[in-house]
Amino acid sequence: MEAHTSGASRPPGAVPAELFVRTAEIAVKWLDSLDHRPVAASATLDELRSRLGGPLPVGPVDPMMVVEDLARAAEPGLVAMPSGRYFGFVIGGGLPAAVAADWLTSVWDQCPGFYACGPAASVVEEVTGTWLAVLLGLPVEASFAFVTGCQTAHLTGLAAARHHVLDAVGWDVEELGLSGSPPIRVLVGARRHVSVDRALRFLGIGRASLRVVPVDGSGRIQVPRLRQELAGTGTPTIVCAQAGEVNSGAFDDLDDVADAVAGTGAWLHVDGAYGLWVAASPALRHLVRGVERADSWAFDAHKWLNVPYDSGLAFCAHPASHRAAMTATAEYLVQGGPGQPRDAMDWTPAFSRRARGFAVYAALRSLGQQGVADLVERSCAHARTFADGLASVPGCAVLNEVVVNQVLFRFADDRTTDAILRRVVDSGEAWLSGTTVDGRRAIRLSVTNWQTSDNDITRALDAFRTAAAEM
């Protein structure tokens, strides 16, 4: 690719308005294409490397050409994740207000690590954190952190847990580290998400410290077995429960889990990556009854709230432990001050970071409480419709009770299941992911996108009927 220098003469500080207008045109064209374009990417790996690769230009290239070339080269390799027919990996789209606010976030380029760097960004996070606590039924006095996603939210909540349970036995982990510390054991369900284990590993808590509690056929932790594990020990303990299993959508009985943990001194952490959002729905919040009794919570905004990637949140019922695990100070930093501003670096693992609160604020304000509830309930209704429709697809069996937005199903055998999934994805009509459950291949559909319509569900079902008939 040759270097073009037509943009090099622009005076320093000049705003390239035409570049931003052109970029908006490209973005709108992409969004307008979602209903008729294939959901899957069409380019191969080699094609993308050829289109996007080559040597770095020696001189500057005109920004307009850079953006147009990038859009043209990347387009065949884009998956239509914002489409209403993308049903993979519990991934939402982007609400218009959230996408627009995210564009402004990039233009404003604030760094809300601490208040002095971005006062508006800091206050937006403060306001949004309070809104979320009320919406999801969490303690209003809970501390919170805006992070990259549920993985980092687990890291944050479990770091607070590590501090808390070790402090209770007189060990200062921030000062002394883990070498020589009292052992920590972590009780987890057999169908927990892998990001929990990964966060614990980052915190120096290895697999040998995990005690795996059996689950039922849907993936719910067996509370009587949990009680047995909790009985008769003074070992610092963390319990990890789950609101929304990744395949079946099943919820642990959080009230029973909290009863089992009560009085033991253990810390209860809830993985609510997508499932915690049902708390916003009067019709579904019974699924998370007792969730407010936990000590920490981790969840995503880029799933069911439909804000652009990346966006996760951690909440903690023990702000002192949360802050002790996260805070950092240095002589050159400008922290605190009149009015007691909130310095986000006291609560997050990040120092410099993106001002994620703007997009979350915009999403919540554009939807309101009722809009969030409607989005969640509509998604679950679409999932039930899809599951009901699978009854007319020859050889298909639904494997889970469809309690929220997840449908788990398979065909006669592993080969047929994988082949039908491949045909549907290759057709471009829908994108779903495969999984393995109890040693057998299955397909999982997740309805998480605000744009998913009745027609999208019909098209996806028709694609499976066609693929099954071809097999």
From TrEMBL:
Top-rank lineage group of the source organism: Bacteria
Keyword hit for Glycosyltransferase: no
GO molecular function: transaminase activity
InterPro entries with a match to the protein in the record: Aromatic_deC (IPR010977), PyrdxlP-dep_de-COase (IPR002129), PyrdxlP-dep_Trfase (IPR015424), PyrdxlP-dep_Trfase_major (IPR015421), PyrdxlP-dep_Trfase_small (IPR015422)
Pfam families: Pyridoxal_deC
SUPFAM superfamilies assigned: PLP-dependent transferases (SSF53383)
Family of the protein in this entry: Belongs to the group II decarboxylase family.
PANTHER family for this protein: GROUP II PYRIDOXAL-5-PHOSPHATE DECARBOXYLASE, MIP05841P
Protein name: Aspartate aminotransferase family protein
Organism: Plantactinospora alkalitolerans
